[in-house]
Amino acid sequence: MEQILCISDLCKRYPSFELRNVSFSVEKGSIMGFIGRNGAGKTTTLKSIMNLVHPHSGMIRFFGMKLADNEQEIKQRIGYAAGGINYYHRRRISEIIRVTRTFYSNWDDGACRHYLDSFSLEPEKRLAELSEGMKVKFNLTLALSHHAEFLILDEPTSGLDPVSREELLEVFLDLASQGVSILFSTHITSDLEKCADAITYMRKGEIIASRRREDFTERYRLAAVSGELTPVQRGLAQGIRRSREGQTALILREQEDKARQAGLTDITAADLETIMVHLEGGTL
Q1: What is the pLDDT of residues 169-181, one digit of tens each?
Q2: pTM for this one?
Q3: What share of the chain is helix, strand, coil (3-state, %, to 5)?
């Protein structure tokens, strides 16, 4: 399939943190969830993709074009929304829209009105009057109002109630069915279970895995024991967590037979949250 975004060997160094050889791609019409714990480097990666921070090395291509050589054209075709963006709090929504629309040649007032209505945003309200969840919806309205072909979203469902999150995920699925590609970071892994086609998992500035969601989850199994794991059982574990009943170990599906031979008989499928929590927990 056509690749909308292709990142190769992206590196960014700070005194206490580093992105190391980050590589992954997003296909046309797909929804990719970008996961990892706080401080893993997700926001730095997204800002590098948008050229809001300047990486030290690596290649970023949108629609087959190098970002470094075609930034203005590319940014007409993508939308970006991030939590924590603050406009002038005393400004009205309508004023912010009036300024923002001047930056996009394909701004669509009809689409803007549609999303204002869908998200129950009143144009004459001032930004300071909006809840954090409504601010997220407003950021998305701006990103969706110029028919972006690719959306890059940093924690788009943060601060939203469950009903609003569900509505937003339905918007994502509808956009993807129209050929729009979406890359979004989130800590709410249940959202990804509902809508993501692919998962990219980052840990400590490195990409641990980037593959289709089903392939990612099918790679692992969860084993539970009452009491402590034996040394052999611990040796098979990719990650270990304590539970009320004893301990749980994340194992590779390909090692399920060995795990059963080692006495791990209570083995079940693992969801995204369980996988991430165990991988981050380590085996100590």
Answers
A1: 898 999 999 999 9
A2: 0.89
A3: 40, 30, 30
